[in-house]
């Protein structure tokens, strides 16, 4: 059996510097593709709605593998990217790259989904502005 070629340190560093989407981003994109709410995903994956909410808001740092597998299955996704995303701590410097990734994904969506994405982003911006004005 032939062994795969070993990676050089340069290749390993390049791979580790590649930005991967966050768990929240992957799940929200999967929900958007299906047109699902948090409740829809929770019911389909047989997990609590609060778990889905916390996941989408990045409120927890760890999740049971079984829960991630159920979510992946419900969204017709591979579980490995969700598991990998759940173990990484995104740096603030990765935020711009993650937003760029998300923007590229939004541009690929059909128009009705682009409208939903725009509306969701507009809501987030309004809520953020309200929080700023209250402080």
TrEMBL record:
GO terms for molecular function: DNA binding. Gene3D superfamilies: lambda repressor-like DNA-binding domains (1.10.260.40). PROSITE patterns: HTH_CROC1. InterPro entries: Cro/C1-type_HTH, Lambda_DNA-bd_dom_sf. Residues 10-21 have a biased composition (Polar residues). CDD domains: HTH_XRE. Residues 32-83 form the HTH cro/C1-type domain. Residues 1-22 are annotated as: Disordered. This is HTH cro/C1-type domain-containing protein. It comes from Candidatus Curtissbacteria bacterium RIFCSPHIGHO2_01_FULL_41_11. The lineage of its organism: Bacteria, Candidatus Curtissiibacteriota.
